[in-house]
Amino acid sequence: MGKATNHPATTASNMPLSEDDFDVIVFKILSYAYACVRGDVLPYHEKAYEIAGCNFTYFKAATLSMLNDGFINEECITQTGATYLRDDNNMAKVKSFLGGAWDSVVDDAVQATRCIKRNKCVPSGEKR
């Protein structure tokens, strides 16, 4: 058995999470993609890479894995991905690990995506 840890979130193997864990990167990408869809804007690949906070090879491995698992498609999150994000125990642990500030990061990323996609900033809730 491993040594007890004071870290609030652990992976399935009870190892402490870190910012560059695969599950953390997957959670960040999926939560951004889900927030984009809910905000009526298609996710922007470069913005997803930015908020994932990892190197490009790691980002590509995570996105290809999610694509192969049916969590995302060429444009956005799928129902399978949304369900995984909502119901998976590891995703819940990652959400706890990242804390409440993560919601603000995602909201800002969606607003930035809205600006990028439209070439201007449009206040949230305003019609196109």
What would you say about this model in short?
59% of the residues lie in helices and 0% in strands.
CATH topology: Arc Repressor Mutant, subunit A
Shape: globular
Element-by-element helix/strand order: HHHHHH
Strand content: under 5%
Biggest β-sheet strands, sense, barrel: none
Integer tally of domains: 1
Spans of 5+ residues with little confidence (pLDDT < 50)? 1-12
* Overall helicity: 55-70%
Indicate the structural class: mainly alpha
CATH architecture heading:
Orthogonal Bundle
CATH class: Mainly Alpha
Annotate the secondary structure layout.
Layout: H1 22-38, H2 45-52, H3 56-68, H4 79-87, H5 89-98, H6 101-118
Descriptive report:
The protein has 128 residues and is mainly alpha-helical. The protein has a single domain (22-118), classed as Arc Repressor Mutant, subunit A (Orthogonal Bundle), CATH 1.10.10. It is 59% helix and 0% strand. The chain is built from six helices and no strands. Helix 1 (22-38) crosses helix 3 (56-68). The radius of gyration is 15 Å and the shape is globular. The protein starts with 21 loop residues before the first helix and ends in a 10-residue tail after the last helix.
Main attributes?
single chain, 128 residues, mainly alpha, Arc Repressor Mutant, subunit A
